[in-house]
Design a protein that fits this description.
The protein is an all-alpha fold and about 140 residues long. The chain is built from 4 helices and no strands. α3 packs antiparallel against α4. The longest helix has about 30 residues. It starts with a helix and ends with a helix.
Length: about 140
C-alpha cells in the first residue's frame, strides 16, 4: 500500500504545481494590468461583482491558488503529514474560486470547467492520502 500512496503524492504534487504555475501567471497578469487586458478580459466583466478592477482578484489568485498550490506541491512531494489536508483545502479553494467567478462574470471558456474539475480531483486525492495518513 505504501507504493500506491506514493503515487498519489506524486499526482497531487504535479497537479498542484500546474495549478500554481497557471494561478501565479494569471495573478501577476491581473495585478500588473488590473484592467484585465493581459488575459484578454475587460473590466466590464466585473459589473455585477464587488470589484472595479482585477487587482484584488489577481492578488487573491496569486496568493491562494498560486503560492498556496506551490506550498501544497512541496508538501506533497515531500510526503508531509499535512499534505492530504492541505490538498483538500486547496481543492475546495479552487472550487469556490471558480464557482464565484462563474457567478460574477459568467461562464467564459473551457478552462473554468477544467479547473473546477481539477479542484474536485484535488479534494478526492487529498482525501485518499489523508485516510492513508490516519492509519
Amino acid at each position: 500500500m505504501r507504493k500506491k500512496r506514493n503515487g498519489f503524492y506524486n499526482w497531487i504534487g504535479t497537479l498542484l504545481l500546474l495549478v500554481g504555475i497557471s494561478a501565479v501567471a494569471a495573478g501577476i497578469g491581473l495585478v500588473f494590468k488590473p484592467n484585465g487586458s493581459t488575459l484578454g478580459m475587460s473590466v466590464e466583466l466585473l459589473a455585477d461583482s464587488p470589484f472595479q478592477s482585477f487587482l484584488i482578484p489577481g492578488i487573491i489568485l496569486f496568493i491562494i491558488n498560486g503560492l498556496g498550490s506551490f506550498s501544497g506541491a512541496i508538501l506533497s512531494f515531500k510526503r508531509h503529514a499535512l499534505s492530504g489536508i492541505v490538498t483538500i483545502v486547496l481543492g475546495f479553494a479552487l472550487i469556490i474560486w471558480i464557482s464565484v467567478q462563474i457567478y460574477w462574470i459568467g461562464w467564459m471558456n473551457w478552462m473554468q470547467t477544467f479547473f473546477f474539475l481539477v479542484g474536485i480531483i484535488e479534494v478526492i486525492l487529498g482525501t485518499i492520502v489523508r485516510k492513508g495518513e490516519a492509519r
